[in-house]
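I would like you to sit down with the record closing this message with an eye to the fold:
=====
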Amino acid sequence: MNIFRIFLESSLAAQIIMTILAVFSVWSWGIFFKKLFQFSRTRGRCNHFLSAYRFQQSVREWRNLGSLLEDNPYGRILRSGIEEYGKLKTMTTRAGQQSGEQQDVKWLDELSDNIRLAMERVKTGEISVLETTLPTLSTFVSVSPFLGLLGTVWGIMEAFLDIRARGSAHITIVAPGISDALITTVYGLLVAIPALIFFNIFRARVNSFETELGTFINEVFAKLRKELLRHEN
């Protein structure tokens, strides 16, 4: 079967639909390769950061990570936590000795929440970046089969109109129109199936990475909270 020959011999409506589906196909493959590169680059930078981070045990050492706090999601999350920790620690220092033990606990709870929220905000932004273009893939998955079905229904309708015009339903009259009509469904599935595979692959990677970042936030938060507790005491 030569789908290009069928394309040339199809009706104008079918050609328009197949052209749109061809654009969707090229677009989805472009997204696939772009996301592969994005995830590979992000993972490489994250691994480089984590290999250095594991040897740093204090907030002072974290601050000395330098550019590693800028070029990857883990680093940017850590930087936001450290910055918030520094700001709020300064606030407690200025507050001085104006309150007793109950006030100290209240300050600590408030500061801990702010640090976690700061890191969570950065994590949300990082996940949003990784999710870019995934809604486009989802749209291709949903729309492509329906566009193909539209072309098929349109072609079948034209075939029956041809039968009515000729006054005969012989297979030699019906078969060419039906075969030409079904090609749009084939086009639609050829676009939707790869797009669905791409979407599921990247959705799983984003979900896994989000879980990893959440675990990292909990780890950093626990250490910063411990530092705040030591500072308050």
Q: What stands out?
A: Helices lie at 3-9, 12-53, 59-63, 73-95, 101-130, 134-166, 171-232. Residues 3-232 form one domain.
